[in-house]
Amino acid sequence: MRAYRSSSSVVVAGKYIALGFYVAFALFPLYWLLKIAVTPDKLIFTDGTSLVPSGFTFENFSTVLVQTDFLAYFRNSLVVSLGTAAITTCIAAAAGYAFSRFDFRGKRLVIAVMLITQMFPLLMIIAPIYKIVAYVGLLNSLTSLIIVYTAFNIPFATFLMQSFFDGIPKDLEEAGMIDGCTRFTALRKIILPLTLPGLAATLGFIFTAAWSELLFALMLINSNDTMTFPVGLLTFVSKFSVDWGQMMAAGVLALVPSCLFFIFIQRYLVQGLTSGAVKG
Amino acid sequence: MARIELQTISKAYGSVEVMRDINLTIEDGEFIVLVGPSGCGKSTLLRMIAGLEPITGGEFRIDGKRMNEVPPRDRDMAMVFQSYALYPHMDVARNMGFSLEIRKSATEERVSKVEAAAKTLGLTDLTKRLPKALSGGQRQRVAMGRAIVRDPSAFLFDEPLSNLDAALRVEMRLEIARLHQRLAATMIYVTHDQVEALTLADRIVVLNAGDIQQVGTPLELYERPANKFVAQFIGSPTMNILSVEQSGRGVQLKDGTVLQLTNGSDKSSARELGVRPEHLNVVTPEKAHLSGVAELVEHLGSDTNIHAKVPGVGQVLVRQHGHFPLKAGEPVDIALDLEKAHLFDADGRRLAA
């Protein structure tokens, strides 16, 4: 008994060590970002790799906010990410519901095609996308980014939403329909409230994906007015030097909306809302 | 209140026909139980009546009006699902009042109806709870309450008790019977449990593989089963089936025993003899039709089930009332109550008495 207990406590300790190691590994880059951002410019190189900065300043932040176009990039990114997340989630929710609940001709084909679109490296289709966007005259516009991001994220978001709908028993809608709902009322009053965690997860996922996308933004946007944040970050890299402190400060600021967004939606991410609906 | 008619109803999925030529008239206020083994189509039939499953052939009428294409919400039927299907994000009161909420009835009316239903079902203290905070039996009650509140023209039950434990099942069965007495509404009830069927039904519809085998009162099915399937499905333990052939005015068992059946039916086509375990008796050797050895004796208190092996005839189950002092391995002599025996032809049809 005693041997068993000591071995199990070793296992527990081992688990915590492994977890701790993983957390440190995952969070270290973030810590480094923060550390460089608050280190005064002249100390960045003299400090080298010491873990704690020998000086402390908010100057980088104020420079970024006041002297650069950071706020404009920020606003552009917000528009693109929120727009993409909202449009994608609406379309994906509708498509996911259809895939989950209805059988229709060509359903398997549509699913197969959607899967295939996910198999190509993005680099392969950059040139055609550029040509198309240029042809319709949407270069240098945020609209083009929203459209492209939406198109690329819909398949994955649809599968995600479908799996959430699959998790809601069909009986609930049927009970609703017998209780006097049309299929749409049943969807709105019964299924939708239960899918909120799914919608929140999809929104969050697409928002982060659009927020950090660089490749297409770099290709389709040239003018300073419409640059999104990841492209804007590159302006801190000049021909002869990199303005590390300001770049990291901008990076820290860019994390804020993602964090806020997840704090806002995390209560919907809590699972277990559907428990008690039907006998398990 | 509703009179429900099914006329040559059929159901097909693509080219696969799963039900054919279903004819049934359910009178106003009648309690009908659809019973059969799993996969026999009883739930599909109920879902067609509810409007959740399209009807592919025939006509379905409520009070004489064709209803095939009418959506479920306009059929004025309430349904209790096997899974209960309670709305997880609504409390008990809102679950029960949801149909009235959708139909935009006045709040006071809704509240009073929900309160009345909650009181009948003993749910008054639970109305503010969410379904996940309820036990299985309480969820079942809420599902019933949701149906009662609507005051529908017919109630549909899809195996409502199959998720409950044995004691609760008996209790809820009584409750459903009481509900039917009180409301006198048309009820259609699906189950695979013959005890539920026999205790609740005014009439039972026995289904097998998409066909109606027999429609009748519980006693009719027990005493005059239309065929071997019904004979074996209704009654517990299952009816003994013994191979026979005609012999003069009676029939002969495989071991040569001749039974002088008193009923006057033509026995030339008889292939099998069916006798219920309760119509067999352990007797003294001189009165016996069959002699064998008790292989297994089950003492149930109220009854004793004796599984006997009779050489040349096969396995026979005898049910004796009360405690019967017999041990496995002991010889046993059995008499058949020939007046209550049934003869079946090669197709399993019962030969009329």
Topology:
The complex is a heterodimer of chains A (280) and B (353).
Chain A: H1 2-38, H2 44-47, H3 59-67, H4 70-101, H5 107-117, H6 122-135, H7 142-166, H8 170-178, H9 183-211, H10 215-220, H11 229-233, H12 244-269
Helix pairs in contact in A: 1-12, 3-12, 4-7, 4-9, 7-9, 8-9, 9-12
Chain B: E1 4-13, E2 16-26, E3 31-35, H1 42-50, E4 57-62, E5 65-66, E6 77-80, H2 92-102, H3 107-120, H4 136-150, E7 154-158, H5 166-183, E8 186-191, H6 194-200, E9 203-208, E10 211-216, H7 218-223, H8 228-233, E11 240-247, E12 250-253, E13 258-259, E14 272-275, E15 280-282, E16 290-299, E17 303-310, E18 314-321, E19 331-336, E20 342-344
Parallel strand pairs in B: 3-8, 3-9, 6-7, 7-8
Antiparallel strand pairs in B: 1-2, 1-4, 4-5, 9-10, 11-12, 11-14, 12-13, 14-20, 15-19, 16-17, 16-19, 17-18
Helix pairs in contact in B: 2-3, 2-4, 3-4
List keywords for this structure.
heterodimer; A: 280 residues; mainly alpha; MetI-like fold; 74% helix; B: 353 residues; Rossmann fold; OB fold (Dihydrolipoamide Acetyltransferase, E2P); 2 domains; six-stranded mixed beta sheet; five-stranded antiparallel beta sheet; 24% helix; elongated
What can be said about this structure in brief?
The complex is a heterodimer of chains A (280) and B (353). Chain A has helices spanning 2-38, 44-47, 59-67, 70-101, 107-117, 122-135, 142-166, 170-178, 183-211, 215-220, 229-233, 244-269.
Order of helix and strand elements from N to C terminus of chain A: HHHHHHHHHHHH
Uncertain runs of chain A: 272-280
Multimeric organization: heterodimer
Shape of chain B: elongated
- Which structural class do the helices and strands of chain B define? alpha+beta
* Number of individual domains of chain B: 2
Strand content of chain A: under 5%
User: What class would the helix/strand composition of chain A place it in?
Assistant: mainly alpha
Mean pLDDT of chain B: 92
